[in-house]
Amino acid sequence: MLPSTTTEPVAGELLPRRRRFGAETIFRWLTTGAGVTVLVIIVAIATFLIVKAIPALNANKENFLTYEGWFPNDASPKFGIASLAFGTVLSATIALLLAVPVALGIALFLSHYAPRRVATALGFVIDLLAAVPSIVFGLWGREYLVGPVAELSTWLNQNLGWLPIFGGDGPFGKSVLLGSVVLAIMVLPIITSLSREVFMQTPTANEEAAIALGATKWEMIRTSVLPYGRPGIIAAVLLGLGRALGETIALAMTLGAGFLISFNLIEVGGNSIAANIANGFGEAGEIGRGALIASGLVLFTITLIVNMTARIIVYRRREFR
Amino acid sequence: MKLQRLGMIAGVGLTATLALTACGSDNTPTPGASNSTAATKIECATGSLAVAGSSAQKNAMAEWIKNYTTACPGGRIEYNGNGSGAGIQGFTAKTADFAGSDSALKDTEQGPADARCATGKAVNLPMVTGPIAIVFKVEGVDNLSLKPATIAGIYSGKISKWNDPLIAADNAGVKLPETAIQSVHRSDSSGTTDNFTDYLTSAAKDAWTFGKAKEWKAPGGVGSKGSDGVAADVAKTSGSIGYVELSYAESAGLKIAKVYNASGAAVALTPEAAAATVASAKVTGTGDDLKLKIDYNTTEAKAYPLVLVTYEIVCTAGNTDKAPLIKSFLTYTSSKDGQAVLTKLGYAPLDETVRAKVAAVAAKIAA
Amino acid sequence: MMVALTARRLPRFAPVGIGAAAVVVAAVLCFGLGLGGVVLMGLFSAVLFVVGLYIATRIVEGPRAARNRVATSFIYGAFLLALIPLVSVIVTVLTKGTARLDGNFFGTSMNLITARDAHGGAYHAIIGTLEQVAIAVVIAVPLGILGAVYIVEYGRGKLAKAIQFFVDVMTGIPSIVAGLFILAFWVMVITPMFSADGRPVLSGFAASLALAVLMLPTVVRSTEEMLRLVPNELREGSYALGIPKWKTITKIVLPTAAPGIVTGVMLAIARAAGETAPVLLVAGASKAINFDPFSSQSSLALYVYDQATDSSKFAPGRAWTAALTLIVIVLTLTVAAKLLARRSKLSR
């Protein structure tokens, strides 16, 4: 830090006296230990999940990766992740398709359309949406959203029923669509707040240049704000995806809990790894728990990959700036 | 100043917490103050019991425990409805003092369970029996009768419309709409599913090919967690059908279908009709073991055939210091008063001869 | 000769008029012709509004302006759309949650409450939530603050980079995975060593551990951000006075960043209090009042889930009131945290 002019070391980076050496070292080790704990926890999560999943996987009479059913509590346990993993990815994807355009719209509204003062207050409202616990969304979705979504499903079925995703013959209720809408509401605030931050950072020079060339506001956004923010948007979407993949209780309460691989969005059914854990845990036996832990391991791996990809994009961008 | 404010917030929080801790109540009854029917002659014991198992008998247990503790404040009993499998595991591992189970001990489970009982033997005591209701919600249909094969057809997906000829054949004169059928089943592993599929397996052999299991094996349909989840889904979805214990059907206000028994009569679900089937059940266990075999194909004309039986799995001896309380509690539950409570909860009381046998075994439970 | 210096513009009332027309047409289509209900009407009027606005603007102002109008209306629409669920959730919880909002609910537990009992409360669950979150705070906050101090003040090289990266990754760990981890590690491996009969013990403390795992990265991230905002001059001034680094950090840097850190912690608490999934797996869900966190406990979020999946016809009332209580706690914490953040001297 400060260049020392005397032979006596100065405080700061250099440690002046032995008496202080003790406290400084202890504190340094303490902080390092706390930092390393994070790494330890991540490694421990993987290790313990693997260790506890192995006995169940060994007892499994079917291929864990390709079997579609989930019967781990039988005398001859059979369970597979296929339909659950499919359902997890499907519901998360639909949720993102619904949430991303809206989230980007809100982010642009807050960063470029609403007046500064109002924007802060309105951004706060979106943050409140993020604070609502998922159990409340689940309860609300199960009791109140199910009606409107069923109405929409009926209409989609009658008018677009020739599309396999809107096929089936009802009645419509707890479906992938319902779960995805709830999920979309839940990931909305994350994507909004991250992309809003990125949009705010657009260099004013870029924006002004576009305006000076006679661009309308939307053209300015399309030519300067969106391209500049693209890596940020991708990262925000991936983080939203990570959240959507891992959401548990809200989906446990709104999906139909079937074990079928089907692209149909409006027929009752749909399932996810996390929802299945919440549903099946209560009455699971020894093998049943192991099987659920094994499915949790798959979920952990998927979310880890998604989150790491998102963070790497964010970091690249940060270094690029 | 900032820290002062933080301190203030913390202080308010702390005070609120302290205020809360001061006034909690566990609903523990004051002796004699209750007008409960159970207050009649229970030979009380003291101590505490941890019981685990079937969620199908959770409601019955909750009521019994409440009545018992009202009469005998010295006895503390906790029932954890975490499933029959977990109950038997807990019983064998001595974490549960006895277990509630939807099915009697299997041969593979009997050995370890007997070992746990040291000087005694692990026995199955039928305690809670009750009808399973087939509930439905179809616009314009108030009365519905179904043959076992039709139920199996609906639940295996072969019958998909309410005006299917098979359903129409079961319901002469009823105008059925052309709506699609939404079958609702349990998404969690459950004794209700176990008993329901057991019934289909024996009463509709040809139409039901998925066997008897706690987990739902047939494709399609909507899964819902818990009987309450099934009841709620049926109540909400037009064109749906589900299976739940009677109490759930009643509290959700659902329409209940009549079921054809083997005599060819369509029987409405009443406690008496269910009791008629339970009465026809035979004890297949030996000695103190009172394992029941329900005759789903009973030809008794008044019998509602779709019933479930759940057991208490308990040691005849080797209960150490818990013995007096187990004995006292199970004596109460198998008494006439205890069984009478069940009717109000939508279960059916045990047949008198079986009840007497269960009470006799309960009276013998020893340390 | 007059030259128009400004392009032709749509009159200001035009969008409003088109909007009103769209709603009317949609209402006629949906209810008059029986095409559908309220949802479809909303959908139809939105589509009609956008199409109408585009056509009108295109005729009067030209295609570029038309696209601009559509984009603007979409962007405003997105915001309004997001308000619908928030308002609906809050209104629903408020209307449904007040039915059981009584002394009995906050004063009793679910012990000895059967399906036929109308009363029964969430006292035990509130105690559980308070204790579990408090323990999680005691574990996660010091660890998180120290970890952030390491990243900002001491960390150099690969290790610091790796820690910083994995803290970010850890924020994305699903809560159910944290619950499974504590189940596999604490409940199934550690507790059998200490329990009397060698069986796993479900406890409120296990839930605290899971919540701590979820809180830790949030606390590290927010503290890290706050520490970076502390001006370097403060540190250098302290060093110049001969104060060692650890003392500088504990006496100067951390107090300066304190309000920001508290904000982060409060947000982490709000999130943890609302978590259901990990508590469902490891807490044990006792129905009776239990102050001992090392045995079975419930929590408010778990209570909502329990009651929402319970058979009794009185359960939904309890579930909604518990949801209301939970939302009040969580939103109060969030609002307080945000207000505190705004008052903080350190701001971006």
Percent helix range of chain B:
25-40%
Shape of chain B: globular
- Counting DSSP E segments of at least 2 residues, the number of strands of chain C comes to 0
Number of strands of chain B: 14
Strand content of chain B: 15-25%
Radius of gyration of chain C: 28 Å
- Major sheet size, sense and barrel closure of chain B: 9 strands, mixed
Reading the helices and strands of chain C in chain order gives HHHHHHHHHHHHH
Helix and strand composition category of chain B: alpha/beta
Uncertain stretches of chain B: 32-39
Number of helices of chain C: 13
Oligomer state equals heterotrimer
Task: Describe the overall structure.
- The complex is a heterotrimer of chains A (321), B (367) and C (348).
- By secondary structure, chain A is mostly helical.
- Chain A has helices at residues 18-59, 82-113, 116-131, 134-160, 176-200, 204-212, 217-246, 249-254, 273-280, 286-320; strands at residues 70-71, 78-79.
- Chain A has a two-stranded antiparallel sheet with strand order 1-2.
- In chain A, strand 1 (70-71) and strand 2 form a beta hairpin.
- In chain A, helix 2 (82-113) packs antiparallel against helix 7, helix 3 (116-131) packs antiparallel against helix 5 and helix 6 packs across helix 7 (217-246).
- Mean pLDDT of chain A is 86; it is low at 1-11.
- Chain B is α/β, with parallel strands linked by helices.
- In chain B, strands 1, 2, 3, 4, 6, 7, 8, 9 and 14 form a nine-stranded mixed sheet that branches. Chain B has a three-stranded mixed sheet with strand order 5-10-11. A two-stranded antiparallel sheet of chain B has the order 12-13.
- In chain B, strand 1, helix 2 and strand 2 (75-80) form a beta-alpha-beta unit.
- The longest helix of chain B has 20 residues, at 2-21.
- The radius of gyration of chain B is 23 Å and the shape is globular.
- The model of chain B is unreliable at 32-39 (pLDDT under 50).
- Chain C is mainly α and 348 residues long.
- Chain C has 13 helices and no strands.
- Chain C has helices at 14-32, 38-61, 63-97, 103-107, 123-154, 157-170, 175-194, 204-229, 232-240, 245-273, 277-282, 300-308, 315-343.
- The two termini of chain C are 54 Å apart.
- Classes of the chains: A mainly alpha (321), B alpha/beta (367), C mainly alpha (348).
- Chains A and C meet through helix 1, helix 2, helix 3, helix 4 and helix 5 of A and helix 2, helix 3, helix 5, helix 6 and helix 7 of C.
